[in-house]
Amino acid sequence: MRLTILGGGGFRVPLVYGALLQDHAEGRVTHVVLHDLDAGRLSAVTRVLAEQAAGVPDAPEVTATTDLDEALRGADFVFSAIRVGGLKGRADDERVALAEGVLGQETVGAGGIAYGLRTVPVAEDIARRVARLAPEAWVINFTNPAGLVTEAMSRHLGDRVIGICDSPVGLGRRIARVLGANPKEAWIDYVGLNHLGWVRGLRVAGRDELPRLLADPDLLGSFEEGKLFGTDWLRSLGAIPNEYLHYYYFNREAVRAYRQAEKTRGAFLHDQQARFYAEMRNPDAPAWKVWDDTRAEREATYMAENRETAGAGERDEDDLSGGYEKVALALMRAIARDERTTLILNVRNQHTLSVLDTDAVIEVPCLVDANGAHPVTVDPLPDHATGLVCAVKAVEREVLAAARSGSRATAVKAFALHPLVDSVNVARRLVEGYTEVHPGLAYLR
Length: 445
Description:
The protein is an alpha/beta fold. The chain is 50% helix and 15% strand.
């Protein structure tokens, strides 16, 4: 089986390859094609993978190319993890937004909109090429903003594009762990959009254990989300929110912390990865060790400003291992081998949430088999969650409309309608600021 990774020179590719190295079953991935526009980054990651595979006799073959069409031809699965504009673009997204006093995070608020406006045209071009060159391939999208980009690609690929994220998986794992349950045996009632969802129940042997967690302040305050949001707020909600909802519920504090930080997250990662790729130009550098040390630092500093604002302390060691690569592998195995499983994924709504239309991409538990991912029927969202989901989905639709029409006025509307942008004038200045720093937004007129 052939897997093409778009963004193949990206820093987290070894996580995906590591998961593949642990899969020895029949029908596994035997050939990995890395595609990236930057040949130097491809070379660096290829070195890391070579060391990673040392001593594994049946390791998937790895080839690399800067030719997109060549990479797509013959693919059974396409894993998309591109970053349009690179980490400099992410840092610029943060800087422009913070100068206006609003959030610049890469998937939430103004930063997420700017990133989406840059990324959607590229993602749609990729989707059209996949439809032409590899029409039987399944596309697994991890490119952020994951829900928005998946919806953009679904216009050309239908249900053959599925978005993944590790946040719901990590949240469900933490809740199960604190309740003393096996995450593999728990049913997680999770629903929302990407980076905007809530766990409303966790069933073990048919019994919902979440009320027990919410009723115990000590237990509730013992894990990441309890520390981040505070036990009183979680009990008020009656649910456990995705960690990214901290940007909504504590927006003022988050913006202040980001403005006071020595570096934004994007700027930190830009500098950190620049050092990694520079070091990898040394042919004598121990590629795997350099990569792994850099990864550990990256994971330990994830959402550091939010945890500092909440007084949540350091991340637990068990939360430093990521997980999106495991979701991707489980998804591929389920489709390729008809190994039926349940995963929380970004898929078209169909008739799952009545407040959204059938084509809206949502993030919910799905039954996965050889025919793809099928969203499971869920209970309606409470009013407070419905309001946020509908507002943010409306913004995503304006982003898609602006990307397809090139309308600057529609882009302004997308920013202005977002719950975390507090003025139409701020929205206008954001569009001006982003078009000045991002050549990729020159299409907005």
